[in-house]
Amino acid sequence: MNDATPETPPAAARPGTERKLPKRFYANADAAPAGDGLFRIELDGRAVRTPGRNLVAVASPVLAEALAQEWRAQAEVIDPVTMPMTRLVNSALDGVAGAMEEVGAEIVRYAGSDLLCYRVEAPEPLVALHAELWDPLLDWARARFGATFMLSEGVVHVAQPPRTLDLIASALPDDPLRLAALNLLTTLSGSAILALAVAHGRLSAEEAWRAAHADEEVQERLWGTDSEALERRTRRYRDFEAAARFFTLLAA
What we know:
Blueprint: E1 3-4, E2 29-35, E3 38-43, E4 46-48, E5 57-58, H1 61-72, H2 84-94, H3 100-112, E6 118-119, H4 124-145, E7 152-153, H5 162-170, H6 176-189, H7 192-199, H8 205-212, H9 214-223, H10 227-251
Parallel strand pairs: 1-4, 6-7
Antiparallel strand pairs: 2-3, 3-4, 3-5
């Protein structure tokens, strides 16, 4: 067969076990035309497929080159943790492509309890930071999509207007790659508004990540940094930034 389907180990091992990674088995990784305006990834000339046996092929040559670069960057072993864009493409082709409605509904559910809608009474620095980072984005969502969000104090749930949720649903991408990227941005940030702001170029990945972690920023100002929490956040940001890059690369 003229394809290469290396086993993709889980991103993290089970507790108490050591993650075993496959050895690098190829010399070259390249992006190449696949026909029909698509570009595939080749390892020593053999096409890469997803764990679900789908051909890894995308419509953007720039994105294809970014995927090939992740394969080139592997050293003695292939570590999926260091390949966030490849993992996202695999997820889009193997999962999201066959469940577009369900994935879209998940994003809309996040909009129904969006992080940006839940405010606090204290401390004052956090109240101020929420207003500084979040209020302009709610204004943007209203101007861009016509979606008006209701705010709540504390953790008391506030139901969003059905029209708002319908407008967010109508703003979702209609292709698996962008929808997968938007879904990842949403779940990692807790906010469909932040995810859409990144997708539409209103925010950079770094700006959105800061907005999503306003609470942590103030806590660290007041009490100092938790090194373990910071490390976990850094790992999650790698995936967040990769999902944000999708929109730039697909538009190139």
